[in-house]
Specification:
17% strand, alpha/beta, 11 strands, D-Maltodextrin-Binding Protein, domain 2, 41% helix, five-stranded mixed sheet
């Protein structure tokens, strides 16, 4: 990846824009294009913000960055955030805008290696990067599908070697984000009809996915900045949903080595499966449903012992969202 951080360069009319550092969860791929579109299409500028976007190294990466104040705003898996806050009571970080209403956590296998259903994982080797958000939810997936985890050999792998190991047949399946791992395998020459994508949300998971998170100390001191940031993000996603091809130049400018057609397809997969759900189309983007979150917490309890009583108000607030969230169509 050629660029690790990019920023707006124009000042806000009538004065200087407020600088905001934004920590992504992953490298600059298709699903990050809406944030760059929010820069190039003037949405952050209109909110009086000068935003610098930095790549991440996994779903857990942004949480400590934001909790320590190194970054005021980030993008991370809310389920990992819930566990982080349980283990670090009082840490100044919370989610403020749900982006992946349906999480992209998945197990990706190959039919030619005997993986077509969850039960096929028994007796196979599963490659999983330890910091991977999908791997963090795998125990819930295993529980919901009555898998004998002792019959699954888990091979810790690095993010760069995950898909190559599956493409070479060194593992039979991997954990990952559906849109990322799937297209990485396609790029490596694996036939699409040989790729099995087991989206965990289709196999019993009630969990939410990645959300915009903020340092709560920063948010209390800068509520208008946070609200403006979220509105600009929503506008960037609205642009991407309306015309995915139109936001690809913003991505390619920051990552010239990327394949534009492949990244546009990756973005479209994320839009279709994770962002533009029936709930979002009906009720708007960014909010969560209290009953579903309660069910998700109960599901987390199946595989994680809370040190403190779970409290949804610690994990998410809609205080910086318009009522009902953002319309994206």
């Amino acid at each position: 990846m050629a660029a690790m951080a990019v920023s707006t360069t124009t000042a806000f009319a009538g004065g200087h824009a407020t600088d905001v550092d934004f920590a992504l969860d992953w490298k600059f791929e298709g699903p990050s294009a809406p944030y760059f579109a929010a820069i190039d299409n003037g949405h952050f500028e209109n909110a009086g913000l000068n935003v610098e976007i930095t790549a991440g190294s996994g779903s857990l990466d942004a949480i400590p960055k934001v909790a320590t104040g190194a970054f005021p705003i980030g993008f991370a898996d809310i389920n990992s955030l819930i566990r982080f806050l349980d283990q670090n009571p009082g840490a100044p970080v919370t989610a403020v805008m749900m982006i992946y209403d349906k999480p992209p956590f998945a197990v990706i296998g190959r039919a030619s290696l005997g993986v077509s259903a969850p039960s096929d994982l028994e007796g196979k080797v599963l490659g999983a990067p330890p910091p991977d958000g999908a791997w963090a939810q795998f125990p819930i997936f295993a529980t919901e599908n009555d898998l004998d985890v002792s019959a699954i050999k888990v091979e810790p792998v690095g993010f760069p070697t995950r898909e190559p190991m599956l493409a070479e047949g060194n593992v039979a399946a991997i954990t990952g984000f559906s849109f990322s791992s799937y297209l990485n395998l396609v790029r490596l020459g694996v036939p699409e009809d040989d790729i099995t994508t087991l989206l965990m949300a289709d196999y019993g998971l009630d969990l939410y996915g990645n959300a915009v998170i903020v340092n709560t100390d920063f948010a209390v001191e800068n509520p208008d900045v946070v609200s403006g940031f979220l509105e600009a993000v929503a506008m960037g996603w609205k642009d991407a949903i309306a015309d995915p091809a139109s936001v690809m130049p913003s991505l390619i400018e920051r990552n010239p080595a990327a394949d534009s057609d492949l990244e546009q397809r990756r973005l479209q997969l994320a839009i279709d499966a994770n962002v533009l759900t029936d709930k979002v189309m009906a009720d708007g983007m960014g909010t969560i449903d209290a009953d579903r979150m309660a069910a998700a917490i109960e599901q987390i309890k199946l595989v994680y012992e809370f040190q403190n009583a779970p409290n949804t108000s610690l994990y998410f607030t809609d205080a910086y969202l318009p009522e009902g969230g953002f319309a994206v169509q």
